[in-house]
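Quick one - first record:
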Amino acid sequence: MNWDRLFRHGRQKGEKPAIGLVVTGFDKGGLEQVVYNLYLGYRRHGYDTYVLCEKPELAGWFAEQLEDLRHFRIFSANEADFFGFCLKKNIRQLHYHYNTFMMERAASLGIRCTYTIHNVYTWFNDAEMAERRECLEACHGIAAVSSFVKDYFCTRSGMPESRVEVIPNGVDFAELDITEPPPGLATRAALGLAEDDIVIAQVSSINAVKHQIGMVGVMEQLTKQNPRFKLLLAGNVIEPDYNEALLAVIEKSPAKSSIIFVPYFSHRHMGEFLRRHVDIFTLPTLQEGCSNAVLEAMYCQVPMVLTDVGNARDVRDVAACIVTPTAYGDVLKLRPQTTPEYARQKDAANQGALVAAFMQMAENLAGYRAQAGALGAEVLAGLETEAMVQRYLAMMFGPEAR
């Protein structure tokens, strides 16, 4: 197929270019929220927007969330299908998320490419990291979701820092303002909690990098000092093997009765869940990009204990939070072969720091709540979906596109 000729003659003068969001697949995690918010935001600004998905897993579930099923395309790593759809829909901007399918070829056809670095690529070896950098040279714009992610990528790949702009994920304030609690969970008692319990919640999918097993060890130490500490685990299972290991650790733990799994509920209830049930939000993960859950906890005025990954560094000076060291030290040394080892450590190297942080926050919970409730309007506006959308549009089309 002569794509060069087709794209050269297929452009419609004066017609507003469409945007294609390119992903590999979905797992009902944070990426879906970001892609969905960008889809809605770009369309709200008058750009026809489509989601191009390489793999069919959970594709139907995501497609049903869109305004029109015809805005979704599974291209199955097929070049003809991919570029044919771009040509038909006048897609002249491709916004890639993890995926890099035909990126360099797309750029050669005059399609402007934007790439978002969503995480620290600890699973890449040095050759793969160099390959990713080379591929991204074709991009018109590159964004990292946090300064932590930018620093990691530029350090390991050698990409000049000037080529990467930090654009944090945004959250949907309107959805968080919904005051309807999760079905059947209107009160703390519905979760087996007492009103005077100190409730810690880890809102994240269950997989190795989220390190829920480490929180079991933390809870063992906390409940020795105060039996009123309770841990809520809220998230879908991404790695069944890790979930089985977690359940086995909990079953043998003296803190078993203080650890509660929250039944699945729609994300539209997240705001009220955080406000009604949670005293301290935590994300003690091994690696992170820009956690939507952290931003949601900030908006819902919940104090936080975080490990020094993802957007923790970006929010620690404005949010009511304590940031602790990670379980492994330098993230540049974290590799796929070592991550599972850290993930299954119940008594991790940073356990003492986490315990101290939770104790400190619990002893002055009223003060931390007051600090959490004092975020200024300017800070909150920077967390909103619209701020993210405007910054990406400016990257794609220039400041006038906002």
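second record:
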Amino acid sequence: CIRDRHLAALARRTVLGERCPACRKVYVPPRGACPTCGVATAEQVPVGPRGTVTTFCVVNIKARDQDIEVPYVYAHIALDGADLALHGRIGGIRHDQVRMGLRVEPVWTDGARHPDHYRPTGEPDAHPDSYRDLL
């Protein structure tokens, strides 16, 4: 099953997407069908692990049952090789320094099924043209 393969890859700290055979876009997480073309997808491709912040928001309200200090940043992150941004928390940087184009990488915790958050890589910011279609 698509979901099981995706979760198994995440357990290995690898992210898999699926490529549409018609438009060639890669979607993360895999969906089994292209949301643009409606065509079944089966080709799995590794993406990331690094990516680019395409848009973000600063959260100023503490979430119940979450041990995260406010303010914090929640962002759309386009993993390298993917054609759709996913959601993730940004850490390792002050909230007022997060920006569109910021290059980030996942931070995993032991036993987690997905990254705890994403932190800056130190790479130069991505050019806006590289993520314009993902906004």
